[in-house]
What we know:
Layout lengths: L2 H9 L6 H24 L9 E2 L2 E2 L4 E9 L7 E6 L8 E2 L19
Antiparallel strand pairs: 1-5, 2-3, 3-4
Amino acid sequence: MDQRQWADLMNSNDPLFADLRFKYENSRREKETNWMEFKRTAGHPVRYGSVIQLHHVDSKKFLTQSKDRAWRNRLAMELSLEQDGNQGSWWKLVATDKGCAEGDNVLYGDQ
C-alpha cells in the first residue's frame, strides 16, 4: 500500500478506521514529543531527579522498558531499542548514594 492509498484510508469515514486513526495520531504525537524533548535537553548536564531518554547513537533508537519480565531474570524487566520510543522510554534518575541529592549533577563514577 502506497502513501496515497494509506492517506485515503485514514481520511475515510469508515468506523473501522476510527481506532486506527486515533492510534496513529497518538503515535505521531509521541514521536514528535520525544524528538522535541531530545533536542531541548541534548548537551545539558544530567541531574538526579531528571526524567531522561537514552538514545543509542549508532542505531538512533531509544532504550525502552517493556511491561514484560526478562526471560533470563524474572525479577528484571525486558529492555529493547525502539525506533520512536514510547512511554517506556522515559527514565527517572534516582540517587542511591547518600552523598547525592535530587538536583545534583550526575558525575562519572556515581553509583
